[in-house]
Design a protein that fits this description.
Homohexamer. By secondary structure, the protein is of the alpha/beta class. It contains six helices and five strands, in the order E-H-E-H-E-H-E-H-E-H-H. The termini are far apart.
């Protein structure tokens, strides 16, 4: 049985993320979406809110688990028995950012391989950062985030 992990901060989860999750569950026996706290980013959503939005957005996807972790991803993977990390790539810039992390994860956990999935064309320009920016102006295009995320963005940004 092969376990894969899709790590991310998911602030917020987008349809691009969900697409990578769906495609990964078709390739691996068990897939864990691992929500991490990224200290270099200022999150819009709390960890609890992210988990709830992920649960709603991935309802009906078989063999997908949603978990959180602290510390090193490579150690979390070892604890979960995962041998694969799945990373979605939108561009060469993503690749250049991800390669050093893949090398370091493999150094820490020699059982761990990183695979890269190209983003589906309709999500190539999509990022959580872009979504948050356009949401501030109530301009999130349809089809870029799950409906629950669109609603949560409206509510969250109206509070500010």
């Amino acid at each position: 049985m092969t376990t894969a992990i899709i790590p991310g901060s998911f602030d917020p989860v987008t349809n691009g993320h969900v697409d990578i999750m769906q495609r990964s569950t078709q390739m691996f026996d068990r897939v864990i979406t691992a929500v991490m706290h990224n200290s270099s980013k200022k999150p819009l959503f709390s960890l609890e809110e992210k988990l709830e939005l992920l649960r709603i957005s991935t309802e009906g996807i078989d063999n997908l688990e949603i978990k959180t972790f602290d510390g090193l991803l490579a150690e979390f993977a070892r604890k979960e028995g995962a041998t694969v990390l799945v990373k979605g790539l939108r561009s060469v810039t993503d690749y250049e950012y991800e390669i050093p992390m893949a090398v370091m994860n493999r150094e820490i956990n020699t059982e761990l391989e990183t695979i890269f999935l190209p983003t589906s064309p309709q999500y190539r320009v999509l990022s959580s950062s872009i979504i948050k920016e356009v949401a501030r102006f109530e301009a999130v295009p349809n089809g870029f985030v799950p409906p629950a995320v669109a609603e949560a963005l409206k509510q969250k940004l109206s509070e500010r």
